[in-house]
Amino acid sequence: MRVLIADDTALIRSGVSRLLQESGINIVGEAGDAGQLLALVRATRPDAVVVDIRMPPTHTDEGLVAARMIRQQHPGVAVLLLSQYLDASYAMRLLQDGTTGVGYLMKDEVARASTLSDALHRVVSGECVVDPAIVRRLLNRARAHNPIDALTAREREVLALMAEGHTNGAICRLLSLSPKTVESHVGHVFSKLGLLDEGDGHRRVLAVLAHLRLDGSS
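Request: output the structure for the sequence above.
Response:
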């Protein structure tokens, strides 16, 4: 796998690079700002990019904007956003362009090489990866007459795993449930939340996150 790393802090770039190289991933370039990142993507055509959300010059959302440009201009390049800020609105903006080959993780969660490597392999294979911390924050927001309150404890577990991007098969393994049981729980979740299951696992992630985001501003 060929990967580009973009972060304005050299120490973080070198740390991420070392972690990935330990997992056998080839680092084809490093960028310190969004402009350099876009130029390197054009020059090297990597399999994936790992991008910090806040980059120069304003340190607001330059990385996110660059990530969306990469997805639009180079759809074959997977994008994994890293952030130290727990802000679900960033994830929603990233997912607006589609949920194939994209991920959003907190930097605190990628200190282990296996975590970061697994996320990259998942997005390169076309999956959607959303940090569990984002999902927990959304699930914990409550409001009057919240339809999520109608879910059983097990259905909440299934919803959280769905929102993280896991397939039904993965949920079976993680919760030690049969495929038929998981299908039943998924059906109940969609029914109680008023969401239509269009048969597209990636679209359902976006649908679930969009619904959960209604529980409060990020």
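The beta strands are 2-6, 26-31, 48-52, 78-83, 102-106, 128-130.
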